[in-house]
Each structure stands twice: as structure tokens, then as C-alpha cells.
Amino acid sequence: MTSKNHSRSIHQRYESLLSKVTERKSQVQTFIDMLHNQTTWLTSPASTRFHLNCEGGLLQHSVGVAETLLRIKDTLAPDISDETCIIVGLFHDVGKVGMPGKPYYIPEARDGVTTGKYSTNQELVSMGLALRSLYLVSQYMPLSDEEAQAIAYHDGMYVPEGRSVSHREEALLLLLHWADMWTAKVLE
Ligand SMILES: [Fe+2]
Ligand SMILES: [Fe+2]
């Protein structure tokens, strides 16, 4: 992470990424309006026990992955568009919000006071997180085949479904996977 990013708030960095989306601007705007109004996108943690298990952790992680992905692709694959990187980077983990009106992470409370810990909502229809990300995003905007593969399989070999595309990963999937790993394990 550059010092420039450290001095900017997470919301400034989020707005800056969104402002670079041009071709699918209206679809992305409709999607984030829904996320802001009907889900915990702006407040959700990124996990219950691992990285950024705090309020706003998911947004912080998502912005970080999009920024890291842009930097990696500028070096290794400049032909991939910024817009593609922003959409798959920002929304690869959006399934962690759960479904509209049904949050996946629930803040734990004791005697009416939140403990800062989270549990997962057992009432949601069960679905892999990456698959739910793809399900949500694809209801709001068209995706290229490469973008769909990248979102669906971004966890790579860390999850069994990663095997179904092993050795057939597109460049975008490889870059998103490593941007995700680097952001979660080195920067956060
Ligand atoms: Fe993920
Ligand atoms: Fe992630």
C-alpha cells in the first residue's frame, strides 16, 4: 500500500475506484445503491475469525483488493481494462453480505451490548461465498466470461471448487487470486 493510500479515507478510495467505471456505470450505480440500502456492504466485517473481522472490514478488504489488482495488472497484463479490475476486485467477496435484507454476518450482543464479534446467519440458503458474489453481481451487470470465472474461482486451490478450473485459469483469475492473497495476508 502506498503512503498516498494511507492518507486517504476508505470512502475516498472507494469513490475514486467507482468513478473510473465508465462502460457499466449505470449498472454499477444501481448495484451499489441496492448494496447501500438493502445490505451490510458498508459495515460488514470481512470474516468472523480471520482478516478484518471488524465493522467495515469487508469494504476495506474489497477496496484494497481492487487497488492491488490494478497495480499488478498494470505491470503484468496492461491490456486488461481498469473497469474489469475494479468490478471483480471490489465485488469478488460481495457474497459475504448475504442476500438483500438477510445479512450473512450477524453482530453478537450480550445484554443488549455488541461484543465486537460476529456469527454467521444460519437462516440463509447455503451457498459458497464466491458463487453468491457471482450470483449477486450478475443480476445487475453483464460480465465477460473471464470476469465471471475470476469472481467464481478467486479462492483458487484453497477451496475444492477451484479444481474444476485448475490449469485452465484465465489471466484475470490468476491476478485476482494473487491480489486477494496479497491484500489479505500482507497488507491487512
Ligand atoms: Fe473471497
Ligand atoms: Fe477476498
Secondary structure topology:
Elements: H1 3-6, H2 10-19, H3 25-38, H4 57-76, H5 82-91, E1 98-99, E2 102-103, E3 105-110, E4 113-120, H6 129-138, H7 145-152, H8 171-187
Antiparallel strand pairs: 1-2, 3-4
Helix pairs in contact: 2-4, 4-5, 4-8, 5-7, 7-8
The structure holds fe (ii) ion (2 copies).
Number of structural domains: 1
Proportion of beta-strand residues = 5-15%
Summarize the helix and strand pattern as letters: HHHHHEEEEHHH
Q: List ligands, each type once.
A: fe (ii) ion
Class inferred from helices and paired strands: mainly alpha
Major β-sheet annotation: 2 strands, antiparallel
Number of strands: 4
Describe this structure in words.
- The chain has helices at residues 3-6, 10-19, 25-38, 57-76, 82-91, 129-138, 145-152, 171-187, and strands spanning 98-99, 102-103, 105-110, 113-120.
- Helix 4 (57-76) runs antiparallel to helix 5, helix 5 (82-91) runs parallel beside helix 7 and helix 7 runs parallel beside helix 8 (171-187).
- The longest helix has 20 residues, at 57-76.
- 49% of the residues lie in helices and 10% in strands.
- The protein has one domain (3-187).
- The termini are close together.
- With 188 residues, the protein is mainly alpha-helical.
- It is built from 8 helices and 4 strands.
- The structure holds fe (ii) ion (FE2) (2 copies).
